[in-house]
Amino acid sequence: MKRRTLLTAAAASALALGAAMPSFAQDPVKVGFIYVGPRNDGGWSQHHHEAAVDMAEHFGDAVELVEQETVPEGADAERVMTQMALSGVDIIFATSFGYMDPVINVASKFPNVKFEHATGYKTAENVGVYSARFYEGRAVEGYLAGNVTESNKIGYIGSFPIPEVIRGINSSFHHAKLVNPDVEMSVVWLNTWFDPAKEADAAQALIDNGIDVVLQHTDSTAPQITAQKAGNVYTFGQAADMAEFGPMPRISSIIDLWAPYYIERVQAVIDGTWESDNTWDGIGAGMVGIGEISSAVPADVKAGAEALRDGIAAGEIHPFTGPINKQDGSVWLAEGEVADDGTLAGMNFYIEGITGEIPQ
Amino acid sequence: MIKFIKRPQPSKFWTLATPLLAVILTMILGGLLFAAMGKDPFEAIRTIFWDPLFNPQFAGYSRPQLLVKAGPLILIAIGLSLGFKAGIWNIGAEGQYIMGALTGAAVGLALYPLEAWWIFPLMIIAGAIGGFVWAMIPAILKTRFNTNEILVSLMLVYVAEQILASAALGALRNPEGNGFPGSRNLSQIEWMSNPELISGTGAHWGVIAALGAVVATYVLLNKHMLGFQIRLTGESPRAARFAGVKDKLLVMFCLGAAGALAGLAGLFEVTGPAGQISIDFGSGYGFTAIIVAFLGRLHPVGILLAGLLLALTFIGGELAQFMLGLPSSAIQVFQGMLLMTLLAMDIVVNYRLTLVKKEVA
Asked: Measured at the alpha carbon of residue B137, what is the angle toward residues B134 and B140, in degrees to the nearest 5?
């Protein structure tokens, strides 16, 4: 408690210092970003970084961008964000789930700094959260996977067993199963977001087990490289388009489109209208993009996938529409019933037909 | 031509002077590196070494953070130095650190929501035991079956990481965490938290323990028979055996003490700065501490200073990243340079450089 007061005092004096200096109307808004991986990881962090750069370019001189990469989730993140706040940053985007508690802690010490936390669920007066409905994109991936597989075996490289990842697994499996009732899915958990060596090993292990479609919720392009070597294995770009691996093995991708959101939120800071929010947008709002479906996919399948994509975007199709049972056979969604956001946000079960267990 | 002549004794002067020289040389080499990357080298070095300590904007926060970051490094490195001095190579402090945090947190969480003053002391004991037991595995395997402790202790790090992941997802998962992995936040539970003791200093119980370990080890090595035996074993294992050193017991002691201290560091971290058991709780302190031990020349006071210096490069490095846009890998290279230059400078500690005129044959 005492430490908190001290920090507030420090922050206040820093602010006073700023106020004492001649203030120009055109003072740039300082925007901080922290990334869990290197900013050139080819996936998640790179996409946040590129969106941040797009945002900075959009505003030009009105915005100053500061970034920090490879920030471990935990005590280190708390220190990095505190130092950023002390350096006079106006808004901080914390772009990984594990920054949740650190964001809340730092935000309570700096009431005048705004925080935006990606994929979390804890909000405060000056903390907003945002995430994308990636499971909408996963549905399209699942549709393609179910159609193109010849061995009827699909593999999924999972990162951490958190609801966000489990949602993606369920969504893709459900839609693969709808178009191909014989399909089976194996999930490998790596407990990391980014580790090319582990990802390559996992992809190889799946391929050795006769799997010919590999989906991933990890960020590197290692599974693409492994699939390319193995030949006749299909993969999907994750977070980034990964178009350089097309038309095979990469047959499509889920692309994170954060730039519009970043521009909107920074604009709100500039205008003084920023308020804590809880944004969860999907294909329709333009936060999730589906990468070009490659020529390796038959034309009718491609058309079907695009129809699914457009249906989800228009709000006509919900990826989780009953009947869907849980893994243990109990009913989750009855015929025609649609999953509610609360259940999706805390999803901690597999749907029927997926083998294996969620690590507990 | 320059000739290296081996000194009969390592030079006292150079033993003390080389760490300083190494830091200066690292600044120069690092400056060149940053310049090659198109950054102002003076600004970069100032941001890393000066700003966290003296820049009014950051110092108030960074100085205490120095202790927070250095505390576990020093605590672990002190334990490691005992073994390193005796030629016992415990590379698995990271695993012992994780296991200490796990057992300590498990004991605390098993008692939740009980409120009693003795919970935190009990957790401290459990943390030390956790690390101790984990270090006993390579110790017993070495003394019984003559296995290599480097390999066994290192491999046990990966075992500990898997146990950590499984605990964060299962046994210790917060039942009120909406299905997300990670335990309850121990730092927010009054009887389990390791708070900042004096506000604004960053000093928590782990920092106190680290300072205590520095003093205790200094006394042990200089005033105690056991310390003499440790040093003797490192310098001449044969002579030590003749002198009646029970080498198996010494292996047990060195590994066990290092394990217990690493376990303590883990416990203080999980109840304080980290706050909770999470899948990626292990953040490499156990490995960085090896650098600290060598940078400090395996001397307790040296380790204290080395721990603070490395903490400074971490915190200053973070500042340099977002203030100047340096990539994190450049900071890691910089830290690596520090160790490399120091080790390279060992040559002047052990050898005398003399200019020799070519003799006519």
From this structure: 140
Q: Do A346 and B170 touch (CB under 8 A)?
A: no
% of chain A with per-residue pLDDT over 90? 68
Q: Which residues contact A348 (CB under 8 A, 6 or more apart)?
A: A163, A166, A358, B179
Which two three-digit tokens encode residue B214? 């520095």
Mean of per-residue pLDDT scores for chain B:
89
Closest CA to B210 of B255, B253, B264: B264
Tokens of B262: 């690493």
CA A239 to chain B, closest CA, distance in angstroms equals 22
Q: pLDDT tens digits for A13-44?
A: 444 444 444 444 458 999 999 998 888 877 78
Contact B281 A74 (CB under 8 A): yes
Task: Indicate the fold that domain A2-132 takes in CATH.
Answer: Rossmann fold (3.40.50)
Q: How do residues A303-333 score in pLDDT, each as one tens digit?
A: 999 999 999 999 999 999 989 999 999 999 9
Residue B60, pLDDT > 70, answer yes
pTM of the model: 0.79
Task: Tell me the C-alpha distance between B131 and B147, whole Å.
Answer: 20
Using alpha carbons, select from A293, A278, A188, A286 the residue that is nearest to residue A236.
A293
CATH for A134-256+288-345 is: 3.40.50.2300
Where along chain B do the CATH 1.10.3470 domains lie?
A: 66-325
> Is this complex's ipTM strictly greater than 0.90?
no
For residue A301, the distance in angstroms to the closest alpha carbon of chain B comes to 36
The partner residue sitting opposite B58, judged by closest CB among A78, A83, A347, is: A83
Chain A residues with CB under 8 Å of B97 CB are none
Thinking of the domain B66-325, which architecture would CATH place it in? Orthogonal Bundle (1.10)
Q: What are the sequence ranges of the domains in chain A?
A: 2-132, 134-256+288-345
